[in-house]
């Protein structure tokens, strides 16, 4: 089973581990309510790893977007990505998200706090994402967010190429994969 950070929603269920294995070669991530990346398909790691998003331990999408200087280069539509990440933190309220919001209000500055203080607008559960991969170049991806609320709130983020060019680049990235699912 893929295991992530300590805590009640830092692991995935065995059946979800099997689902991730079967999703490969599609890039997919499982995040918990604070944005910790607790599991990924092999291609998900190959796609997002080189951007620096998976460098921290635990890897955290929220912190990456707002505090890593590589994030704006990785996401050409950074403002839109930042809006979605901040909104998701506000939707999954609990002690953990409140602590992360408090921490990031101090460390990430106005780009974060301004978004947290805005009126809440429900994020799209599916949309397009432009990702600037360090070796693959610009990819245009569609994504679906599937909520997994059986035990603890977790979200499966599934990415698919949105055009032929992105399909070819993703196939090249996938050709170097090792193993199916790792966390």
Q: How is this structure best described in words?
A:
This is MmyB-like transcription regulator ligand binding domain-containing protein. Residues 12-172 form the MmyB-like transcription regulator ligand binding domain. InterPro entries: MLTR_LBD. The protein has a domain at 14-77 and 124-182: Beta-Lactamase (2-Layer Sandwich). The relative contact order is 0.20. With 183 residues, it is α+β, with helices and mostly antiparallel strands. The protein has eight helices and six strands. Strand 4 (137-148) and strand 5 (154-161) form a beta hairpin. It is 40% helix and 22% strand. Helix 3 (61-67) packs across helix 5 (78-91) and helix 5 (78-91) crosses helix 7 (110-117). It is globular.
């Amino acid at each position: 089973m893929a295991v992530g950070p300590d805590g009640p929603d830092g692991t995935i269920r065995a059946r979800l581990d099997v689902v991730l294995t079967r999703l490969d070669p599609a890039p997919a991530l499982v995040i918990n309510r604070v944005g910790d990346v607790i599991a990924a398909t092999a291609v998900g790691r190959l796609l997002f790893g080189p951007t620096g998003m998976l460098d921290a331990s635990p890897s955290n999408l929220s912190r990456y977007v707002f505090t890593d200087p590589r994030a704006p280069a990785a996401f050409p539509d950074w403002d839109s990505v930042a809006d979605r990440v901040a909104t998701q933190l506000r939707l999954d309220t609990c002690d953990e998200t409140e602590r992360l919001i408090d921490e990031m209000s101090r460390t990430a500055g106005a780009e974060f706090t301004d978004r947290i203080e805005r009126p809440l607008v429900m994020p799209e559960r599916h949309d397009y994402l432009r990702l600037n991969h360090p070796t693959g170049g610009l990819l245009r991806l569609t994504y679906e967010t599937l909520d997994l609320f059986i035990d603890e709130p977790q979200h499966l983020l599934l990415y698919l190429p949105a055009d032929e060019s992105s399909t070819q680049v993703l196939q090249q990235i996938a050709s170097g994969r090792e193993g199916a699912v790792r966390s």
